[in-house]
Amino acid sequence: MMNKYCEWVLIFVVIGFCVLVNGFDETEFHFNTSEVISLLEASSAVAAPKPLLVGLTLIPGAAAKGAVCLDGTLPGYHLHRGFESGANSWLIQLEGGGWCNTIRSCVYRKTTRRGSSNNFEKQLAFTGILSNKPEENPDFFNWNRVKVRYCDGASFAGDSEDKANNLQFRGQKIWLAAMEDLMSKGMKNANQALLSGCSAGGLASILHCDEFGSLFPKSTKVKCLADAGMFMDATDVGGGHTLRNMYDGVVTLQGVAKNLSPACTSKLNPTSCFFPQNIVPHIKTPMFILNAAYDSWQVVSSLSTPAADPHGDWKACRNNPGNCSPSQINFFQDFRNQMLNALKEFSTSKENGLFVNSCFAHCQTERQDTWFADDSPVINNKAIALAVGDWFFDRSSVKETDCPYPCDKSCHNLLFRS
């Protein structure tokens, strides 16, 4: 990790170089911090150790079980074996990547790595919670670490097909085939196991948490972690329900209803039971919810979409929270309050963990800079990796809720261009 002093020296060197080359005219010279930071990151990358690259394993027996990607190809995962004290510990990370809710979107999706293993990367970089370096991943670096690829479009929960368009909606069967294959490769002997995922994979870790727990004997320590999976059934800026409409399409098209929590579906409709706020009260396996209070995916793709904002009043705010008006910030504060209220009952359980930071961010476990780094986000001086580790190993109770935006200066806010 580059020393902070060295970083600033490099910034001033870059500024000086720009002045030397371009001359200095205060009316024309603009210091673009993002460009300098990009140069800084590139320079840091030269000196930084290369991340571990882990090869792809396709599940050979999956097709016979009907467990296939949208286009009918085999599902797969990337496994890096544990060692020393972590040899019998397993961390499963479910890949994210949105959903498809119409025939058209699913037909397109099957031509990408989100719908066909033909387009999977043959190797993936394991960083953040998947890193094999103790200085980057202090509690899980030597565990068996697995990234399960996402190629169904329904958070590993569908079970249907559309023969006319050659679409297989087999997320639930992919989940089962992957777990069965990993159990045969030693996971059945685990003394501790953690199911995790981010974004659509975070939702999947919520949907499958109790199923995961049921794979193991009671003597095994089993917990679940959902990163950026707390998708809210919230009203968008136009007064509509963008995400509810999308989820209704996903659940209906992909045959998700039969795989949802019976405790939820006995009270609510299947689409409502695809929303985490209606699932987490029923989960019995200990779970950790990690989420940005102003989840950037939800801000851009659910709350303030162009369709919900036809006049473009939210465009600047959507791309950068620094451009938001007081009333727009109040809208996001209300969204934050809805999330915290939805998690009130969840957080009362001593077995559950909570880390909700007031950032405009999304997926903080897989990125090294947000998981565990010199300047990673903190609440009460505790980084995310340490909070998750303290919770998993019962070193301390973790129920961290940040103060409202913009009080947290440790955030790595995601900015967008349009």
Automatic annotation (TrEMBL):
EC number annotated for this UniProt entry: 3.1.1.-
Enzyme class, first EC level, given as a word: hydrolase
Subcellular location: Secreted, Cell wall
InterPro entries cross-referenced by the UniProt entry: PAE/NOTUM
Pfam families assigned to the protein according to its UniProt record, in alphabetical order: PAE (PF03283)
Cellular component aspect of the GO annotation: plant-type cell wall
A GO biological process held by the record: cell wall organization
Molecular-function annotations in GO: pectin acetylesterase activity
Organism: Artemisia annua
Family to which the UniProt record says this protein belongs: Belongs to the pectinacetylesterase family.
Protein name per the record: Pectin acetylesterase
Domain of life, per lineage: Eukaryota
Role this protein plays: Hydrolyzes acetyl esters in homogalacturonan regions of pectin. In type I primary cell wall, galacturonic acid residues of pectin can be acetylated at the O-2 and O-3 positions. Decreasing the degree of acetylation of pectin gels in vitro alters their physical properties.
Secretion signal, residue range per the UniProt entry: 1-23
Keywords: Cell wall, Cell wall biogenesis/degradation, Hydrolase, Secreted, Signal
